[in-house]
Amino acid sequence: MAFPGAEQYLPNSRDLDDLIAAARTCRGCDLYEAADQTVFGAGSPGSTIMFVGEQPGDQEDRAGEPFVGPAGRVFDRALEAADIDRELTYVTNAVKHFKFTRAAGQKRRIHDKPSRTEVVACRPWLLAELDAVAPRIVVCLGATAAQALLGSKFRLTQHRGELFNLADDGDVGPERVEDVIATVHPSSILRGPSDKRDKAFDDFVADLRVVSNLLAS
């Protein structure tokens, strides 16, 4: 299914407050119809690191803030373990509305992965955030986020923890970002087998330490 995309809803300004206000009116795809609200990024212009996840979850959709649910708590613990100051970061998602399903007769909203067309429709907001924040480093959390910036052929299993730049992308140039790294989304740790979660968390922290080392270099 084709969507009109977010481009027509973007303001001329790249002030974060202006972007947040404009994103509330976005009808670039149909995810806005079921979600409670637009969940834009959080942080300050000039943040050194931008973390990009897939989409807001149930708690994020209700709160209107990114990374405040269970995965967000794992994320915060990992940042602390990797010696990354949350105040230096800007956190956002490739898709700004919560996509979910419900089992028959159930009220609980279950995460549903956004389609490629939904990611592409929302991509102008992500590029506008890159302009507004101008981070030195971008960390893609999960395959959806990585493919939103590095292309649909990117495979997290092959390139996890590697450094990339965006110089070859026509609309995400090297003037915006020095380094890009992709790792897992913290929600994958929670979804994994309980007896392997400690190892998965440690591996996640190891990836974040690559980012910490970049800051120190």
UniProtKB/TrEMBL annotation:
<keyword id="KW-0234">DNA repair</keyword>
<keyword id="KW-0411">Iron-sulfur</keyword>
<dbReference type="GO" id="GO:0051539">
    <property type="term" value="F:4 iron, 4 sulfur cluster binding"/>
</dbReference>
<comment type="similarity">
    <text>Belongs to the uracil-DNA glycosylase (UDG) superfamily. Type 4 (UDGa) family.</text>
</comment>
<keyword id="KW-0227">DNA damage</keyword>
<keyword id="KW-0378">Hydrolase</keyword>
<keyword id="KW-0004">4Fe-4S</keyword>
<dbReference type="InterPro" id="IPR051536">
    <property type="entry name" value="UDG_Type-4/5"/>
</dbReference>
<feature type="domain" description="Uracil-DNA glycosylase-like">
    <location>
        <begin position="40"/>
        <end position="209"/>
    </location>
</feature>
<dbReference type="GO" id="GO:0046872">
    <property type="term" value="F:metal ion binding"/>
</dbReference>
<protein>
    <recommendedName>
        <fullName>Type-4 uracil-DNA glycosylase</fullName>
    </recommendedName>
</protein>
<keyword id="KW-0408">Iron</keyword>
<dbReference type="InterPro" id="IPR036895">
    <property type="entry name" value="Uracil-DNA_glycosylase-like_sf"/>
</dbReference>
<dbReference type="InterPro" id="IPR005122">
    <property type="entry name" value="Uracil-DNA_glycosylase-like"/>
</dbReference>
<dbReference type="GO" id="GO:0006281">
    <property type="term" value="P:DNA repair"/>
</dbReference>
<dbReference type="InterPro" id="IPR005273">
    <property type="entry name" value="Ura-DNA_glyco_family4"/>
</dbReference>
<dbReference type="Pfam" id="PF03167">
    <property type="entry name" value="UDG"/>
</dbReference>
<dbReference type="GO" id="GO:0097506">
    <property type="term" value="F:deaminated base DNA N-glycosylase activity"/>
</dbReference>
<keyword id="KW-0479">Metal-binding</keyword>
